[in-house]
Queue: 2 jobs
Job 1
Amino acid sequence: MSLRLVANWKLNGSREFNNKWVDEFLKNFNSQNFPSIGIAPTSIYIDHLQVALGDHAIKIGSQNIDIEEAGARTGEISASMIKDSGCTFCIIGHSERRMLFYETNQQIGQKLIQANNNSLTPILCIGESEEENQHNITFNVLETQIIEVLNDVPDLHSLIIAYEPVWAIGSGKTPNPEEINSVHEMIKDVVQSRFPKIGLESVLYGGSVNFKNASSLFKQQAIDGALIGGASLDGREFALIANVFNELRE
Ligand code: PGA
C-alpha cells in the first residue's frame, strides 16, 4: 500500500522521544494498517527508531537526500545510504529546504533521480506563498514548480507529491478542504497529462493538519492523505489522526 500519512519530525527528537512516541502511538492506534504510515525522523535516529518500532510495519524515510551518490560533500547523506539504513522513502524539496538552504527546482529534480536510482519513493513537496495565494496564482505557481522539477526527470517508478501551501505550514491556517481538493485534482491532471511515464502514487496535503481538521480533509476524494509536522510529534495525536483516516478510507 502506498504511503498515506507521513510524519515529518523536522529537527526534533531523541532516543527517549522515539521510545515514548512509539508507546503512545501503539496505545492509541486502532488498526493494522501500518504500511500506509511513514515517519521521517532526523537521519541520525533512523536506526534507533527502527528498533523502537519493532515488528510494526511502519515505513521510515529521510527528510532529505543529497544530489550526489558519493564524494567530497561534507555533511551530506546520499540516497543509497538512506536505502541502506532500511528506509523506503524520502521527503524532497520541502519549503524549509527551499527557503533556508536555497534548494532550487533543478537540484530537487536531481534528488528525485537519486531517489529513483535507489528505489526510494520520493515525496516531492510543492506549495505557494501567502502572497501568491492572495493573488490567485496558486495553480500557475504549482504547475511551474512541477514542470521545472520534472522536466529533466525522464521517468520515475514511483512519486508522491505533497501539496504544502507555505503559509499553512506551522501556522494553524489551512485553505478550505474544497480548495485543497481542486488543487490536488489539478496536480494529478498536470502530472498525468505532461509526464505519463511518472508513476504518481498519491497526492498528500500538508500544512497545519491536526486531529480537529483531519476528517474534513480526508472526506475530500482527491486528498489521498497527509504530510504532518507539528501534530505528528505527539504519538497519541498522530494515532488519532490515523484512526480518522482509516475510518473514512479503509
Ligand atoms: P505542520 O508542518 O503540520 O507543522 O504545518 C507540515 C510540514 O511542514 O510538512
Job 2
Amino acid sequence: MIKSGFRRKMVGVAIGAVVLFFGAFAARSYNMHRFHVEKQTRFMMDTFVTMVVVGPADIGSAAIKAAFERMQEVSDKFNNRDPKGLIYAFNHYGTPITDSEILFVAEKALDISRQTDGAFDITVEPLVELWGFYGDNPALPIDAAIKACLQHIGYQHLIIEKGVLTKDDPAIRIDMGGIAKGYCISQAAAVLREKGITSALIDAGGDVYALGRRGQQLWKVGIRSPRGNDILGFMEVENLAVMGSGDYERFFEHNGKRYHHIFDPRTGYPVEGISGATLLFADPMLADAWNTAVFVLGKQKGRAVVETLPGMEVVIITDEDDLMVTSGLANALQINTESNLSIARRP
Ligand code: ADP
Ligand code: MG
C-alpha cells in the first residue's frame, strides 16, 4: 500500500479523473496544415462532457458532432426517469425489454452481479428513489422503509431469455446509472473511430476515455483528491478508460455523517470505507461498472478482486485518506510529481 501522506479538509466538489494539459499540445505535435484540434463541451448525463479530437480539420468537427449525437441517443435510452422510455415502462408496467442495446448492457451488468456476489446490482432503483437521489433533496429514510425496500431488490429477479428482459417480481425496478455512462462513452469512442479519428479524449465529468495517443506521446490523466482539487497523481495512458467516482459526487450530510449515492444492495445503506476510486480498463462500460462494484465491495475486497482481473487497475482513496493501488499501478501512478510514468493498454 502506498501511503500518499495527503490529508486535506474538504473544500468542495471535485471530480475523479482529470485531464491534464487538455489541448495545449497541438502546435508542437502536429503539422497544423493537416491536423486540427477540435474541442467541444456539452451538458449531458447530468454533467459536462468534453471531447477533444485531433485529426484532419475536415473530419474532426463532423466526428465530434456525430459522437455527441450518439452519446445523447444512448443516454436518453438508458434514462429510467423518462416516462416515455423503455426502462420506465419496464419498471412501472412490467413491459418486457427487447431493445438489443439495453439487453447487451443488462447482460454485462448481470455478469458483474454474479462475479461480485450481488455487490453490483442494477435493481437498486427503489433505494435510489427512497433516499431521494433522483431529486435535489436526498435525505435519510427511516430504517423500516429501507428494510421494506430490500424485499424488492435482487438481480436474481431479472431474467434474460431469447432476447427478452423480464422480471419475476413486479416491484423490481432497474437503474443502470452505475454502468450506462461508461457505455455511452464507449459508443462515442466507437463513432469517433468509425469516422477515422485515431486521437481523441472524452471527459464526462471525471470519467475519461483516452483514444489513441496524444500525438507522439500518451494522454496524461490525473487523479483528483476526493476532498479538494489537488491532483494526487497522474498516469499516461492510451486506449484506456479512467473512470472516477466518489462519495463527493452526490451526497448529503446528516448529523455529521456523509451519505452518498452508491448503495450496498444487502443493507440498503450507502457504502462506507472508500471516499474515491478511479478504475482503469480498456472497455469504458466495464470500467464504469467495476468502479461502482469496487465501492460496494470495499477497499480490501475491491482491490483484491481487481487484482485478479487482467488489464484492470484501481486507485482507491480510503475514508482515512490512504491511497491504495493495485500492483500494476505501483510504478505507473506518479504521485504529485511530473516525472516518469506510465500505464498503457492497446485495444
Ligand atoms: P456517476 O459516476 O455517474 O456518479 P457511478 O458510476 O458512481 O455514477 O454510479 C453511481 C450510480 O450507480 C448511482 O447513481 C445509482 O444509479 C447506481 N448504483 C448505486 N448503487 C449501486 C450498486 N450497488 N450497483 C449498481 N449500481 C448502483
Ligand atoms: Mg459506475
